[in-house]
Amino acid sequence: MKGLLIKDLLLLKNQQRFFLLIFFMSAGMLLVGVNSVFVINYVTLIFTMFTLSSISYDEFDNGYAFLFTLPITRNQYAAEKYVFGFVTGGSACIIVTVIALIMNFVRGGAGTLELLITALLYLFMSLLFMAVVVPVQLKFGTEKGRIVLIFIIGLIFAAGFIVVKAAKTFQLDLSTVIAALTSFAAGPVITVLLLISLAAVYGSYLISVNIMKKKQF
């Protein structure tokens, strides 16, 4: 797996200008007062999505046939994509959060704990994002995978619309429910979200392994 990680990190290095631009843009947005939560979410998602690009690179020009002549297993290949996504997304999240905290400190602002908790939540969301997109990309490839992802996003929005409509039908105040959930202590909530994220990633990993084992090169 180490060799696969090095390969993907070298691919990342080839696009270092793009990612440096993202960081400078993020720092600029924070400097002019753009919402820190938005910037952290944006950068974390961008870097996590590079996992999809790495899979596309591997697929290009029948690259799998070459990769699996090396001493790696399909299980290791699938696992590496999740590790790589966590490393890139997590690193980006930490760097931007540190910049946001520095900006917040310079401005004498409060809410440091809230910012840290928010960054952690977005890191969990990036794990859930990987849990969905990695098996889709491995199964359908770049072009078809994009269509499937659009369909999945559409389903998520449709589910949200149904929930809102159902809440109105049953006269349920969603803001009250959200306020009740956020009133709980941060520790237990973060623990539950972490467990959910890890369970989703593990389930996704098993699906990805099954997909890779069925692939013919």
Which helices and strands appear, and what pairs or packs with what?
Blueprint (H helix, E strand, L loop, with lengths): L1 H13 L1 H16 L4 H13 L1 H10 L3 H5 L6 H33 L5 H58 L4 H9 L3 H29 L3
Task: Describe the fold and architecture.
By secondary structure, the chain is mainly α. It has one domain. The protein has nine helices and no strands. The longest helix has 58 residues. The radius of gyration is 19 Å and the shape is globular. The two termini are 20 Å apart. The mean pLDDT is 81. This is ABC-2 family transporter. Keywords: Membrane, Transmembrane, Transmembrane helix. InterPro entries: ABC2_memb-like.
What are the key terms here?
membrane; 217 residues; ABC-2 family transporter; single chain; transmembrane; 9 helices
The share of residues in extended strands comes to under 5%
What are the low-pLDDT stretches, counting only 5+ consecutive residues below 50? none
- How far apart the termini lie comes to 20 Å
Largest sheet: none
Mean pLDDT, as a whole number?
Answer: 81
Can you give the helix content as a percent range?
over 70%
- In one word, what is the shape? globular
User: What is the rounded Rg?
Assistant: 19 Å
Order of helices and strands: HHHHHHHHH
Number of beta strands: 0
Name the structural class. mainly alpha
Structurally, how many domains make up the residues? Answer: 1
InterPro entries: ABC2_memb-like
Protein name: ABC-2 family transporter
Transmembrane segments: 20-47, 82-103, 115-135, 147-164, 184-207
Keywords: Membrane, Transmembrane, Transmembrane helix
